[in-house]
Structures are given as C-alpha cells and as structure tokens.
Amino acid sequence: MAQPARMKRRHWGLVLSFGLMVLVPLVLVLLYMWLVAEDQYASSTGFTVRQEEDGGASAVLGGLAQLAGGSTSADGDILHEFILSQALVQTIDEKVGLRDHYSAHWSTDPVFALSPDATLEELQEYWQRIVRISYDQGSGLMDVRVLAYDPDKAQQIAQQIILEGQAMINALNDQAREDAMRYAEIELDEAVARLKEAREALTNFRTRTTIVDPDADLQGRMGVMNGLQQQLAAALIEYDLLREQTSEDDPRITQVRRRIEAIRNRIAEERRAFTSDTTANSTDGEDYPTLIAEYEGLVVDREFAEESYRATLAAVDVARAKASRQSRYLATYVPPTRAESSEYPQRLTISALAGLFLLLVWSICALVYYSIRDRR
User: Fold this and answer.
1) CATH, range 39-184+326-363
2) Of 11, 49, 185, 226, which sits 20 to 30 A from 75 (CA to CA)?
3) Model pTM?
4) Whole-angstrom Cα distance, residue 276 to residue 290?
C-alpha cells in the first residue's frame, strides 16, 4: 500500500519560494499602501470645444464635415494633445507650483510623490500620472481628472487647465481671424487691380479708335444703310412710273438713273466698310469687325472684373463680421469639483493587482523550474 504523503524538501522549497516571492512582497505593498502612502484627492471637470453654428448651406457642410471627422474633432484632438504637452505643464508649474506641491511628500511617500530634483521631462511624465483624460472623438466631450494631496490644489489645477485651454482656443481664433482677413484683403487688392486694368484697357481702346461705343456707332451705320435702302426703293418706284408715263429720252429718267446708281454705289461702300474697309478713325488699319470683337472682349473682361470685385468686397465684409465674434470657444459642462474625501491611491485595487501579478510571476517561475527539473 502507498505510504501517507509527507512534505519533502522540494515541497518546502516551493512553499518557501511562495512566501518570499508572493507573501512577503504583498505584505510590504499592503503596509506601504495603508501606512505610508499619502491620501490624494481628485477634482473632475468636463468640457468640449464648440463652434458657432451657421445657417444655410454652411450648416449642412459643417454637419457633413463633423460626420467625416471634421474641424470640431480636430479642435478636440488639438486640445487633448495640448493638455498633455510640456508647454502646458511648464505654464501651470509657474502659476500653480506643481513641483513644490508634489515634491513636498517625497520624504514620506516616494512612490507616489515627485522627486525634488525632477527635470521638466520628468515633471511631464509625472503629469500624465496625476492627470487622466477621457476623450470621445465622436462627440468631442473631454473629461479630466486631476489628483493632488490637497482638494483645493486639485481644484485649482483643474481650473488652470480650463483657463489655459481657453487661452489656446482664443489663440486659434485670433490666428484664424488674422488669416481670414489677410487672405480676404489680398483677394480684394487683386480684384481692384484687375478691375482697374480692365477699365484702363477699355479707355485705351476708346482713345485709340475715337469710338466711345461701337454698338451705338454700329446702330448709326445700320441707320444709314436703312435710309439708303429706303431711298433706293423710292427711286426705283419713281423710275418705273416715269418709264410708263414718258419716253426713254426724257431727262427725268436719266436723272433718276443717276440717282439710283449713286445710291447703289453708296450702299456698296457702306457694306465694304462693315467687312473689310478700315475705319476712318482707326490709325492702325484695323477693320470694323475686328474692332467690334476687341471691344466686346474688353467689355466682358470689365464686367467679369466688376462682378469679381463685388464678390470679393462681400467676402471681406463677411470675414470682418466673423472676425468680430468668437467662432470657437471652450464650453465647460462640468465645473472643477472639490473632493470631500480621499479616493486615491486606490489601495484595494493596487494591492489586488500586485498580489495577482506576484502570484503569476511565482507560478511561471515554479513551472519553469519543474519543467527544467523533469528533463534532467
């Protein structure tokens, strides 16, 4: 029959290793958490970056941009990175005194306190331990929790984070205003120069051709043509009547023929002036159709420059109106709270995690040891 199980040397070694690797460190952690670690107080706040809402098509485009991760989400991302940045840590340290507060407990709580000789980079790393940010990119809501050894100090740091965040948003607003006004004024200057150039080109055309309005001049020429056509019709009728009433030797018939011939010659001259003959007022030998085409092109350029100038002027007014109000602002939906009791450090949670970690380490070491021992 099998002998009763008894503790052997390897069993006592396993128990000893459990005590040294699990129980002793766990007892030290428990003693430190309940006897040494200083109480910490939390101040929570919540805020988001909002933009003023526009009506009409801009609101629709803004909604589509937000669905696609537009500017609202981008502003939240910028604010999130700014809160964790070294620049904010340095600014709050200068205004609130982070080093003095968190290093004051270094002698009594070196695990959770800040070293008095900490550099700016170490202070930034410590900042990420005492400041926890919960950020939802979809809604843009941001929750911040600040830990400190004093509830008033925690609330003061949280308030300073809001103030510095608002200052950063204001800086973005100022930069956006300056850029919008600068670009609008540049476009206005270009539109004014374009309009001035178009008007000067039209003035040079009128000076060169001594034609103020080719359309009016063309209408005058067409009036002359219509008058000649009417005179020719009247002369032909008169000629037909004379032929019926008198003989071919009548001097009046000869006179009417000469009149008809003169009118036809004048009509032919006028028609050639419309097609190929140079104008009497032109010094460059340009024909009339070319001048008409050139004038119409200059008029189109001037009208386009005027429309562009009016649109740019309206854009400047809109940019100036937008620059007079704040397009982005930091909306605080949860003011910084003041804790009445200490909730940190989370002693039970840290102790349980420490025990679990030590147990896992001991188990792995034991399994590795017996695996090597069994292969020998």
Assistant:
1) 3.30.1890
2) 185
3) 0.62
4) 10
Q: How far apart are CA 164 and CA 146, in angstroms?
A: 15
Q: How far apart are CA 198 and CA 299, in angstroms?
A: 8
| Spans of all domains in the chain | 39-184+326-363, 193-321
Residue 320 forms beta bridges with which residues?
none
277 CB neighbour count, 10 Å cutoff: 13
In 3D, which of 58, 96, 47, 79 has the Cα closest to residue 171? 79
3-state secondary structure the chain: CCCCCCCCHHHHHHHHHHHHHHHHHHHHHHHHHHHHCCCEEEEEEEEEEEECCCCCHHHHHHHHHHHCCCHHHHHHHHHHHHHCCHHHHHHHHHHHCHHHHHHCCCCCCCCCCCCCCCCHHHHHHHHHHHEEEEECCCCCCEEEEEEECCHHHHHHHHHHHHHHHHHHHHHHHHHHHHHHHHHHHHHHHHHHHHHHHHHHHHHHHHHHHCCCCHHHHHHHHHHHHHHHHHHHHHHHHHHHHHHHHCCCCCHHHHHHHHHHHHHHHHHHHHHHHHHCCECCCCCCCCEHHHHHHHHHHHHHHHHHHHHHHHHHHHHHHHHHHHHCCCCEEEEEEECCCCCCCCCECCHHHHHHHHHHHHHHHHHHHHHHHHHHHHHC
Side-chain-facing half-sphere of 274: CA atoms under 13 Å = 14
pLDDT one-digit tens code per residue, 299-322: 888 889 889 888 888 888 877 777
28-68: pLDDT as tens digits: 999 998 998 899 999 999 999 887 655 443 444 344 334 43
Strand partners for 332:
47
